[in-house]
Amino acid sequence: MITENGICTDDDTLRWEYIAGHLESIFRAMQNGAVITGYLYWSLLDNFEWDKGFSPRFGLVEVDYDTFKRNIRESARKFSRVCQTGVLKR
Question: What is the C-alpha to C-alpha distance for residues 10 and 58, in angstroms, rounded to an integer?
Fold first, then answer.
């Protein structure tokens, strides 16, 4: 089980490329015999990091800390399609 795999960036295109690259690596590892039971991206939401406060942006869902409004990022939509279809499209 791969857990807490994510990237801290304001660039959502980079976030998707990071996820897609890791999914491709997981697929290759499984083809070579690795038993992988799951993949969990870190994190669903932007959150508080003890050593850096609210500035790091990890989330598939952006949080506006002034209004607490959530905005689903495009990387989340793409990851969702992969989870639903089992097909990775870059």
Answer: 8
Domain limits at 33?
2-85
71 vs 37: CA distance, rounded Å: 29
pLDDT over 90 (residue 45): yes
What is the reported pTM? 0.93
Buried b (16+ CB within 10 A) or exposed e, 18-42: bbbebbeebeeeeeeeeeeeebebe
Indicate the number of domains in the chain.
Answer: 1
Is position 43 within any domain?
Answer: yes
67 falls within a domain = yes
pLDDT of residue 90 exceeding 90, the answer is no
In a domain, 39, yes or no: yes
